[in-house]
Amino acid sequence: MSALENIVVVGVSLAGLRTIEALRREGYEGAIVALGEEPHLPYDRPPLSKQFLTGEWDQEKISLRKQGFDDLGITWRRGERAQALDAGAKEIVLESGERLGYGGLVIATGSVAKRLPFGRDLAGIHVLRSLGDAVALRDELGRSPRVLVVGAGFIGMEAAATCREMGLEVSVVEPLEAPLLRGLGPVLGPYVGEKHRSKGVELRCGVGVEGFEGQGRVERVRLAGGDSIDADVVIVGIGVAPAIGWLEGSGLELDDGIVCDGAGGTKLPDIVAVGDAARWHNPLARGPVRYEHWTSAVEQADFVAARLLRGPDVPALSQVPYVWTDQFELRLAVAGRISPGAEMHVCKGSLEEERCLVLFGREGRLEGAAGLRRPRPLLGARKRIGEGISFEEAIAENADG
Ligand SMILES: Cc1cc2nc3c(=O)[nH]c(=O)nc-3n(C[C@H](O)[C@H](O)[C@H](O)COP(=O)(O)OP(=O)(O)OC[C@H]3O[C@@H](n4cnc5c(N)ncnc54)[C@H](O)[C@@H]3O)c2cc1C
Description:
The chain is 23% helix and 30% strand.
């Protein structure tokens, strides 16, 4: 077993917590210090744009550990932020100036929501990343505001659907020509967009936001081209960036995430990284990739714990990305990728029925699959993407009847 006596985990949300659990499963009995800037015990983020926002679920329901945390033997340092890493001294510098020594270090600081460069002095403008963000937004939604969502990606479209289901007037503004283009491609993106329109969401694509206007709080959103839309609450959903600013100058390789080998090992000894903040070498993608998905963080945890305890001989994780989204009645999940220009084949139902499997092929290979209320066939397709089967074979395997 490992000679490490003291492991510090920075960032204690999904990736950090699942790594701590994996370290204990691997038999690590030494000290674990969990340092996280949020005051809360680890909670799940996906419900923040769904059941938590409506008030259907409370904070207890979104805890990441129903059985509690006591058995993990963690020393908590909650509400404290790591400000810098002094890898030479094997210490983390906290905002207070205190230095926290480590034998092994797990970096799991995730990502932060991007913000627009204007409107920072106005009330009513929100992002949706943390429990604090969701509570602040939920409090405002109770006053029946007109809601405008900037950005038609997964978070923006989920928030729009949830607000509309709460009976609110909702507009979405997206600079690209269709919603969810990056995540779902040119057919499924507009398909989900039509669902929103049929439910009464005003969806404006191909136009950017140029500014917010109001006295003290937002009242109007100014669009490129001169139009404006009245709004009492704005949700900015324009993507996330890895939370790695505190690691500048530490000696770690940073390039849209902490660059890691195939099991989360970094350039520096006894330091690993996991989850949204990390860019692992993925053998299937033949290069480093950073995923911003729940399942990636969970699947990486076992590998990164083994990598920290046992060193570089731990095999690489071959990851086929997987993400799900719930919007109105649509239960959609995607495995692999949907690249522009990919061939598409619908089977096991139809888009009209909102129940089917959609296969995506490129250069003769199955590269992605989307499932609408078809979880099992999608999991099968995910496995087959990892095995590198041909598009033709995938179509034959999933033939109806
Ligand atoms: C509203 C919402 C809905 C989502 N829905 C889905 C979904 O439907 N499907 C899906 O696949 N994925 C979804 N995701 C994405 C998924 O939640 C993330 O991929 C996952 O949370 C990543 O886990 P993580 O632990 O790497 O990072 P995070 O969850 O971002 O956690 C990082 C933690 O580190 C802390 N931290 C950051 N910097 C520091 C520092 N310097 N010092 C100390 N602590 C620090 C942060 O405060 C945070 O607590 C959603 C995300 C959000 C926000």
